[in-house]
Amino acid sequence: MELVFMIPLAGLAAVFYAAYLAWDVLRRDPGTPEMQEVAGMIFEGAMAFLKRQYTTIAIFALITAVAIAIIVGAVSDGVKDIIKEGSGGNITIGYSPNAVVDHWEEGVLTGIAFLVGAAASALAGYIGMFIAVRSNSRTASAATRSLKEAITVALRGGAVSGFLVVALSLLGVSTIFFIYSAVLGNPDAIAPFLIVGFGFGASFVALFAQLGGGIYTKAADVGADLVGKVEAGIPEDDPRNAAVVADLVGDNVGDCAGRGADLFESMSAENIGAMILGVAIYTVTQDVEWIIFPLVLRSFGVFATMAGLTSVPFFASDDPNQNPMTPLNYGYYIVCALSVVGLFIATIVMLGDEWYWFFFCGLVGIATGIAFVYITQYYTSGAWRPVRDIAEASRTGPATNIIIGTAVGLETTAATAITIGIALVASFALGSEADIPGVGGFTTGVFGTAVATMGMLMSAAYILAMDTFGPITDNAGGITEFSGAPESARHITDSLDSVGNTTKALTKGFAVASAGLAAFLLFSAYLDKVKERLSVPLNKELPIDISDVDVFAGGLLGAMLVFLFSSFAIRAVGNAASKIIEEVRRQFREDPGIMAGTSRPDYARAVDITASAALREMIAPGVLAVGMPIVVGLIFRYVRGDNDGWLAVAGLLMIGTITGILLATFFNNVGGAWDNAKKYIEAGNLKTESANPGAVEVLGKGTDAHKAAVVGDTVGDPFKDTAGPSLHVLIKLLSTITLVMAPLFIP
Amino acid sequence: MELVFMIPLAGLAAVFYAAYLAWDVLRRDPGTPEMQEVAGMIFEGAMAFLKRQYTTIAIFALITAVAIAIIVGAVSDGVKDIIKEGSGGNITIGYSPNAVVDHWEEGVLTGIAFLVGAAASALAGYIGMFIAVRSNSRTASAATRSLKEAITVALRGGAVSGFLVVALSLLGVSTIFFIYSAVLGNPDAIAPFLIVGFGFGASFVALFAQLGGGIYTKAADVGADLVGKVEAGIPEDDPRNAAVVADLVGDNVGDCAGRGADLFESMSAENIGAMILGVAIYTVTQDVEWIIFPLVLRSFGVFATMAGLTSVPFFASDDPNQNPMTPLNYGYYIVCALSVVGLFIATIVMLGDEWYWFFFCGLVGIATGIAFVYITQYYTSGAWRPVRDIAEASRTGPATNIIIGTAVGLETTAATAITIGIALVASFALGSEADIPGVGGFTTGVFGTAVATMGMLMSAAYILAMDTFGPITDNAGGITEFSGAPESARHITDSLDSVGNTTKALTKGFAVASAGLAAFLLFSAYLDKVKERLSVPLNKELPIDISDVDVFAGGLLGAMLVFLFSSFAIRAVGNAASKIIEEVRRQFREDPGIMAGTSRPDYARAVDITASAALREMIAPGVLAVGMPIVVGLIFRYVRGDNDGWLAVAGLLMIGTITGILLATFFNNVGGAWDNAKKYIEAGNLKTESANPGAVEVLGKGTDAHKAAVVGDTVGDPFKDTAGPSLHVLIKLLSTITLVMAPLFIP
């Protein structure tokens, strides 16, 4: 228990650090009155969206919490304590004869944990977003002075969100664990099972934030483009377009609030899953360190991230031509290096004599995070072959742009799958080498994958800060343009914006990788829950046989769920976009002064209509995601047989996850690559082919090749910002919902 | 053994029937001299392609056969006889103490089976294609007289291919089984394991035919369009375009030879897999019926198909406006009805007292086939919502066409997965009800899925006849256009061509479904092989635990293989198309007479260049498909541990299959839907929106909406004709290659 003090220390330090960063950003110059006016509209739009969204979430979360309490209370048999039986080489981890937590109490505690998880995630998203939309005009203002200051403001603004997400997840999980174990007097071994509702709550909010937010942002984007550029013939971001503020708000909604909730869910669910896996080792060794180790490891990550973030301004130079990615990368290296130190301390102090095996597992996780940062850059940045191939294919029109883009996108899944595969097998193999008397290699191996996952997530706050850097700089660019700031400022915000695209893309890669590692870990936690209910000792393997027809059919349905969910998400963007198009058309029609530039369009109404359309359109995919695992489990249990329900759900979970990882990778990367192929052409890198060097012309903006690339970019928008990120959430939601609803499928 | 005479009878009857149909087609009027000239060029091009392709196949097949013989001979321990041990309720299906087939003999027999399978598939493809490209001008000529005659000629021409595929697969499997068991004096129980090479040989040829053919057909199509329509500004199918014959040849190469080899592989591999599953029951009951039942069932299918095909002309009317789908559908109903009768006879005579359970399993299979025919029509025909949605989305440009098309394509996987899932679970549940003393419900259940698969494939010859109907009528349309035949003939070939698109699409749906059912069945066969090598009794379950890290990682790699293979296949089309574009440009440049219409382009050279480019471009995906399962098996075995190789391969196989089914469905259906959305617009079904009915205009050919739909159609081409169909082959290839190469991964 030596390092347990680190948990509240890190949680509170993160909160105070976020408060300091927020204060630091807010005290800076908010820019010219023109800048403040635009920023004000974005702020109002964003808050209006959040208000509507969080009201909806609050209502549905309350209903769901009550439903969970009733279902779990009615169906469960209560929770039995987990105890060691036998000795020497013949230890089994069995159960106490009677339930120590009554089934109704279990239901109520699970429902409360759900609400706490949902509230913590929502709070982190709200405050983070509040600061992010306050940082944009300050970044625009800073850009009129220096690149260094602009980077600092944008990154600090983004870091508020990053630290709050990490802090509230850490404090949330540790507080509820402390209350459900020590305060309520339940055994440490069963408390992790009582808090799975927290993970489901986080998933629930993430579904709204990422799916609803993703639909919102792309409906506004596509709608604004189609009605403005195509129909009315006015340029992008023109103030006469009523949808333009909705579009700027959308960037924050998807990338800041959405991705924040996504990683909040990753950290919380994986943390709880890792604690559940620690229970088996704790029961044998009676060292509670095995349960709280994941929390401690993350606490070290908080301090490593603080140091890395603080160092960034020192690497930024005063040269406005410096690539802003350079200081961000240096900061990331510092975070990783300090994470290794923290990992070393945590493992050597807490994990007994064979600590070094788990230290290696953690290293695998940290290395995986770094690998994903580079893989994503390779596939989505204009500096390498993939994006250039797409740009070249644009010469022959939109069809070849789409065909080659699809080929590139499909190809990117290889690096992802191989990296995740190696990480899993390596961390399992290393973990299973740890020789803890009475605990089998299988149990320590699975715990090893949990350590790798937590190791990777140590840098989550930094990654999130870089991610939110994206919409802040994007908005800053828009504000600079709107407000007629000097050319030099535009140069700086352009360069920041382009880096922001890269950081947004790499966060998605990081999120996919964490979802992949999490899947294996959470699946093991699901099996522990099944073992508990079927009274199979925790240290016995419970094979899920893929050649069993129910597992196979469940797997087929799981893979199908991923495809169908993506279809619904993509279609939702189209439907919501048509609503915003109608509204902008109506405003043009009813007030001719808008087109003439004499009266201002009603931006707030466009924001509100988009928000309500996005929330309505997320019903179908949302119900599908939450409902299908439950329906499949019930159908197989009651039509096929008592033991076929949880088997089919297991197949659905695992194969849905694998398919989801690959499809999300495809959507994220193909969208990013199309986007950057367009930027590559706009930057003048594509030239006509000619034997005569004097006749070579740049195929830039306005050429057919550029138009073809714009088609690819537009197609990629709902892929990379709606379907892909929503699939991360879906993958984890499947795990948390089946963990909570397990009593429904298990006899 | 009562019905065993049916097998040679049906095989020979099918051959003679095919010969009769060929004679009947060839004796008909080959059309005007102009028709014959074009048809002659297509014929020469097709034969040139086949010559080049089959030469390549022959060389590689010989090398592979030798490699198989050496690897299996060197690595295997030989084959032990399978014998019943114990009695009453405690029967195990074990192995004889010593090998009855020496390991070198096993290697040589497997290599020979491989060659026979490859040769039989190639022969069926060659003759079928020969007749198909002879039928096109005869169909064109018949269309100048009546719709009824045109349908008859096209369907009979297609049926030659269909019957030869079925006959050669049936005769090939049964002959080699007879030789390897009775003639060589090996026990009946082990002969099915000796002939798995036949399935791999069929897979090997199918890979060339479907992947190489798919690359060829779409490279020619895309290349001809880009260089002709886009660059030279000449219309589609213009004789001045040197690539135009290659394009017409391509239709035959992909749909006739490719799909024929695809279904040859399905039938052969599934037949052998079903025989392997029958071994366990045979060993207990000592009734060899359980092994040869699949062959007998298919024999009944041959006669049912003959009756159905013969009946089609009676349902065709003399009215040129009759929908040609109507007589084809009636013929299919007759095939299905007679298949039920054949299934009834075969099960009641051969499968003992509990025959009716397997009769029900077969019904499930027949119903699944019918369901797929309708599901595909719903999603890819202009009469229903999905295609109309895509057409509507074309109003706002190519991007929305692609976005909504993608959403529709992803959605189509739901019906596919649910239908396959229900078919598998239902046939397993029904089969496991059969109470055969000493045989467990698991064994009879898996055999039930085999019966369902064979039931579905009873109508394969009819489905294939309808499929080859597609390229024949497509070519007939081209010939009619080229040769300036009367308008009435063009009307008939147009209506046949549109039906041909539907029949091609539904064959793909049928192929996917059969691959899905086959996967489960062949996986069970793979496990039987593993059990044999590990000396686990055949009637004991051998769980493949998906929560095992090696199975999970293998699964991740299997799903990735499907994505990467698709990427390679799609990219190959682009690369090969650039070769044909260069050649056409060269011809235009070197002989200005071509553009002026005074000299004829060198069509044969364009065909040859496309053929060699297609074969070169299939190396990368081909090596990936064949190499990856072997490499994964070896790496896991030698890096992770002796038992991890076959476990990882099992994961790769199963999860690769599930992902492959869904991705193939997506590619096939999205391509078909885009194609028909374009046709829907061309037919004048899309109109401008206006409150004033007098102002409504048709958005037909040449409008922006139509151009957007053309982009979707072009994108869909490599999806539906290269990537999708190649994935069917990949799925089955994974099964057959792991069956043959199993000794490499199993200690």
Describe this structure in words.
The structure is a homodimer of 747-residue chains. With 747 residues, chain A is mainly α. Helices cover 80% and strands 2% of the residues of chain A. Chain A has a two-stranded antiparallel sheet. In chain A, α2 packs parallel to α21 (704-745) and α3 (103-143) crosses α14. The longest helix of chain A is centred in the C-terminal third of the chain and has 48 residues, at 487-534. The relative contact order of chain A is 0.13. At the A-B interface, α12, α15, α16, α20 and α21 of A face α12, α15, α16, α20 and α21 of B.
Q: How far is the N terminus from the C terminus of chain A?
A: 38 Å
List the total number of helices of chain A.
Answer: 21
Element order of chain A: H for helix, E for strand: HHEEHHHHHHHHHHHHHHHHHHH
Name the chain pair whose interface involves the most residues.
A-B, 78 and 78 residues
Strand content of chain A: under 5%
> Ranges of chain A with pLDDT <50 over ≥5 residues?
none
- What is the count of β-strands of chain A? 2
For the largest sheet of chain A, list the strands in their spatial order: 1-2
Oligomer: homodimer
Radius of gyration of chain A: 25 Å
User: How confident is the prediction overall: mean pLDDT of chain A?
Assistant: 89
Question: Biggest sheet of chain A, in brief?
Answer: 2 strands, antiparallel
- How much helix, percentage-wise, in residues of chain A? over 70%
Structural category of chain A is mainly alpha
In one word, what is the shape of chain A?
A: globular
